[in-house]
What we know:
Helix 8 packs parallel to helix 9. This protein is of the alpha/beta class. The radius of gyration is 19 Å and the shape is globular. The protein starts with 5 loop residues before the first strand and ends in a 12-residue tail after the last helix. The strands form three sheets. A five-stranded mixed β-sheet has the order 2-1-3-10-4, with helices on both faces.
Amino acid sequence: MTDKALRLGTRRSKLAMAQSGQVADAVSRVTGQPVELVEITTYGDVSREALAQIGGTGVFVTALRDALVRGEVDFAVHSLKDLPTTQPEELALAAVPVREDPRDVIVARDALKFTDLPRGARIGTGSPRRMAQLNAYARTHGLDIETVAIRGNVDTRIGYVHEGRLDAVVLAAAGLNRIGRIDEVTDFLSVDTVLPAPGQGALAIECAAFDADLVAALGELDDPHTRAAVTAERSLLAALEAGCSAPVGALADLLTDGPVIKEMRLRGVVGTTDGSRTVQQSTTGSVPLTHDGAMALGRELATEMLAQGAAGLMGERAH
């Protein structure tokens, strides 16, 4: 390692810049090198189409990965839930740092909780996964809501509520934490109500696979438990053959007895966006100590969900 600045590729959004800035500081600490941010515009940033329409998978990632392969940046930071489940051979997923809060949250008018929203409340989200689970919850709990497809950054989405165009919007707690706006949340959605996207709240730090020194240095930021959890979640997603815009929720969490970690529980859900049909399953096992073990946990749960009819609930399956 030298004193030469490392170039970190990042999307230009406020959230991406905030999380990349936090990673840059951490990388500087472990390498002793300065880190400069290189802003890259991705297809997902410029397209105004709904994510589900433009494929979801990789739309925020491809331009960053291309810059890595071309050597224009030394490493890149992604929201892990945006990564396609197949890892390119020429790139290394060098680190998955400690995960932020994986939950979804509501920002609603009049500081309302989700269950206190008025009849016919309009809730904005760009995620089929969130729509499916919110509508399913509403159906089983006698709530009357309408989910509305929206796009845009955090400011745009929260603005729809302040302008009175929507009663509430659904966002990720992690993103609001990272940009210092968590105090605007009016309700944290329990993972028993809405399972997050696979990998939600986690970051992925990628670099060229051949750069062994950089892979090792970035690896200092890796959190083994977070990596095992998100690997299991993404294995489930891959085994369901679903892209990251599919209505699939998954969360692997650690079951503890005091300070002792006992087991890992993986939960998965898939449903139609109107909430009329869902398949939800969970499996619990010893905490995977290897990549293959975490992958096996995800595949095991996917097999159970497919046996319950999950494939028929996802619409267009991504290949």
